[in-house]
Amino acid sequence: MTPYFYKEPVLTLDNVSMSFGGELVLRDISAQVLDVVRPNMKQGQVVGFYGRSGIGKSVLCRIMAGLVAPTKGTVQVGVEQEPVKPGAVGFVQQRYPLFNHRTLVDNLLVAAERKYNPEEARQQVESYLERFCLTPHRKKYPAHLSGGQRQRAAIAQQLLCSDHLILLDEPFSGLDIAMIDEVKKIIVEVTTMDELNTVIIVSHDIVTTTALADRLWLLGYERDAAGNLLPGATINQQHQYNLAEMGLAWHPNVEAEPEFAQFVEEIKEEIRRS
Amino acid sequence: MTFRFVNYTSPMKELFSPNANPQRLVFMSMVATQAFVLLLLWMFYPLQLFPSLGEVFRSLGSLIADQGLIQELWASMTTALQSIAIATVLALLISYLTALPFFRPIAYAATKMRYLTLTGLTFFMALMVSSGHEVKLSVLIFGATVYLVTGMTSVILTTTQEEMDHARTLGMSEWRAFYEVVVLGKLDEMLEVVRQNFAIIWTMITLVETLYQSEGGIGLLLYKQNRYLHLDGVVAIQLVILATGALQDYVFVLLRRVFFPYSWLGAAK
């Protein structure tokens, strides 16, 4: 097993609940993402939140990104654990929005100018274009980019202005096998760019999310003692998995391992039961 | 043996197929044919509802030579351009201010003023401003602004949560996000609103030019031709206005293509 240890928290969800018009969507969600350190490795980490379609994952994303305040509870981010505010967490939405009126290079520049002076911003943008294989498309408008290029551009844009935390909402949704592999490569690429980089995947794709993550939280519903479904999705104690501890993290081809397949089967069974 | 499905549609059939995209040459030939048929109908229609083509052309010549049609058109056009420019600035201001809840009732009221008839309003405007030209201009500005605000606010309302969230996640302040997503992001659509509503000015210009006749204008010329039942002159002037409108539309489309090249990229073809 790869040696590792945890340092300070980089994201803390403390008893987060969210209601809309009196309807409880999320209930008492607590989770903490800790900065993981692997000796002699200069790599960030990937953590995953799994939830079935319609369970409130996008709401959770918007809360974690600071775009909407939870009805109850707090979200704190960064080494200083400050309350989250918009812009503190890079957030790539499901449909990879970009500014359609700007070319690709301008889209990245407008993001980079938040953190860097104009000259540095230009250099950073060039380096990201190169790293994400987008240089030949720099003058194109978003409408001319393919789905994969658009996704890479959206991730690059968020990385250029956020502080190490990047949240991906359903990054594998509607993609074919080749595209999923490409997205996986990008995610790994993001983690290798800086040791502090943490990618948070919120997805309903259990296999791909589990394969990439070293921590996994399962969003689901709970039942009371009488067997009635409680309102609001939550993460209970049994649904928090430390994949690193289980020996299922950081393997290049973990999906081919029988232990991984068995774990995924167990999770699927758990989901079906809930 | 292999079978291959060939999706061949004849050019003629394509013109009647839903969502078809005929070749440019085919499409242009179709337009030319339609125009020619219309011309034939005009020339040979037995009921003679309209003055004949020859009469209209003769009248056009006489209007240009004797009654200064071109000068009158220019006078109307400068008034129309002046009005639409001021109305656009006003409408953009009112529409963008809807970002602040305080100004929303004002924009809402402005959109509803489309239902007001201009008759009577001109009297109040005459009391407020000094010259006939200013009354004419203020009536046109008022009429165009209320339509422009309606179109522009509905463009602003198409802004999605995703678009605003995207700007916010890049750390933009609320004003900066509004500027990026709504002001810059929808400027091309605002130009389209102006193009569509410019026509309102031409429909109002006849009314205002007849109220304040000192400056002339093509509207006044049309009014006079109509009053003396010179139908050939009426049709000639209407055709001139129609051609001016079409040219105006073309210029707007050209401006949109030059300044907002991304505008058509996502449109269905």
TrEMBL record, chain A:
<keyword id="KW-0547">Nucleotide-binding</keyword>
<dbReference type="GO" id="GO:0005524">
    <property type="term" value="F:ATP binding"/>
</dbReference>
<dbReference type="Pfam" id="PF00005">
    <property type="entry name" value="ABC_tran"/>
</dbReference>
<dbReference type="InterPro" id="IPR003439">
    <property type="entry name" value="ABC_transporter-like_ATP-bd"/>
</dbReference>
<dbReference type="InterPro" id="IPR027417">
    <property type="entry name" value="P-loop_NTPase"/>
</dbReference>
<dbReference type="InterPro" id="IPR050166">
    <property type="entry name" value="ABC_transporter_ATP-bind"/>
</dbReference>
<dbReference type="InterPro" id="IPR003593">
    <property type="entry name" value="AAA+_ATPase"/>
</dbReference>
<protein>
    <submittedName>
        <fullName>Nitrate ABC transporter ATP-binding protein</fullName>
    </submittedName>
</protein>
<keyword id="KW-0813">Transport</keyword>
<feature type="domain" description="ABC transporter">
    <location>
        <begin position="11"/>
        <end position="246"/>
    </location>
</feature>
<dbReference type="InterPro" id="IPR017871">
    <property type="entry name" value="ABC_transporter-like_CS"/>
</dbReference>
<keyword id="KW-0067">ATP-binding</keyword>
